[in-house]
Write a structure and sequence with these properties.
The two termini are about 25 Å apart. The protein has two domains: about 5-205, Aldolase class I (TIM Barrel); about 210-290, no CATH class. Helices cover about 40% and strands about 15% of the residues. The longest helix is centred in the C-terminal third of the chain and has 24 residues, at about 300-324. With about 325 residues, the chain is an alpha/beta fold. Helix 2 packs parallel to helix 3 (about 50-60), helix 3 (about 50-60) packs parallel to helix 4 (about 80-90) and helix 8 crosses helix 14 (about 300-324). Bound molecules: flavin mononucleotide (FMN).
Length: about 325
């Protein structure tokens, strides 16, 4: 399938794996890229720029296809060594960077000068337009359904994607709630040039996370995610568990006076415990409503091949058939 995104990233299928903390290691990124999509190493999961350089080198040993690195700009007083991470990305010969969190203007000139394509992930049309105006090559438009940080506007993809299509000139991916051929075909119909998936790619054979995480995804339904940290304007969609229930009780009790320190136990240092050790109640971890559509643990190639095969059938048989 040829779209503006397959052309831009030089890939076979318009399917991206978004950056995921403690999930986006070289194993998953390479598997998605080898399947014809584009996988992503999560930059900040690597503790130092030197660790990221090693992870990039490892990924290059596992695939000769393009892959991306995610750079997430966190709302923190002590920012990570972003210039160091950018240097590791450029020196590692990475072709695509997914930025997220806030406006990537500070790193954009360095990445563009190195010939790197930049796709910025954002949750509103105004932020997408800003990304376009500063020179991003593409955006991932993340709807309210998404796992992780959906922003504060709460606009689901049935509205957000056609709105993005009305306004944007650069190509965009549909992100949030994407899992299968129906997602891809619907996204294309709404003007997107492909899809970005997070949660769906966790439940794959190659995702280097504890088996408990994959089982939790299989067991969950679309009713099992919660929004947390809204009073802090740092809303996150997570899978419900005991820690999340506790956190929500604190939010109810403290109201608008709540501070990050009040919930630190439920949100800090959680990812290695959940993703690597499989301690599922260790705290709050991102998960999309799309868990309701995930019923198996295929390889990345099986998943991507199935999406593409079913998408062709859906377009050629069901949709074309409606015209006659
Ligand atoms: C476990 C998990 C961790 C994530 N970590 C990050 C991250 O560190 N940086 C980022 O930009 N997005 C992160 N995301 C968001 C994904 O890249 C993607 O935008 C989102 O999962 C899409 O929604 P979906 O889960 O419905 O497919 C994370 C998502 C999940 C599920």
């Amino acid at each position: 399938m040829k779209t503006k995104i397959t052309e831009l990233f030089d890939i076979q299928y318009p399917i991206m794996q978004g950056g995921m903390h403690y999930v986006g290691f070289a194993e998953l990124a390479a598997a998605v890229s080898n399947a014809g999509g584009i996988g992503t190493i999560t930059g900040l999961t690597q503790k130092t720029p030197a660790d990221l350089a090693n992870e990039i080198a490892k990924c290059k040993d596992m695939t000769d296809k393009p892959f991306a690195v995610n750079l997430t700009f966190l709302p923190t007083l002590n920012p990570p060594d972003y210039p160091g991470y950018v240097k590791a990305i450029i020196e590692g010969g990475v072709k695509v960077v997914e930025t997220a969190g806030r406006n990537p203007q500070s790193v954009l000139p360095h990445l563009k000068d190195a010939g790197i394509k930049v796709i910025h992930k954002c949750t509103s049309v105004r932020h997408a337009l800003k990304a376009q105006s500063i020179g991003c090559d593409a955006v991932s438009v993340d709807g309210f359904e998404c796992g992780g940080h959906p922003g504060e506007d709460d606009i689901p993809n049935m509205i957000l994607l056609p709105r993005a299509a009305e306004e944007l000139e650069i190509p965009f991916l549909a992100s949030g709630g994407m899992a299968n051929a129906q997602s891809l075909v619907a996204a294309l119909a709404m003007g997107a040039e492909g899809i970005n998936m997070g949660t769906r790619f966790i439940a794959t054979k190659e995702a280097p996370v504890h088996e408990n995480v994959k089982q939790a995804i299989l067991n969950a339904t679309e009713l099992d995610t919660q929004l947390i940290m809204r009073p802090l304007r740092n809303t996150e969609r997570v899978l419900n568990n005991d820690a999340v229930e506790r956190l929500i009780e604190k939010e109810k009790a403290l109201g608008k006076d709540i501070k990050f320190e009040d919930i630190i136990e439920e949100v800090a240092g959680v990812y290695p415990k959940v993703m690597l050790e499989g301690t599922m109640d260790a705290g709050a971890w991102s998960c999309g409503m799309v868990v309701g559509l995930i019923h198996d643990i295929p390889t990345c190639k099986e998943l991507v091949d199935r999406i593409m095969k079913d998408a062709f059938e859906l377009i050629q048989e069901r949709l074309a058939g409606l015209l006659s």
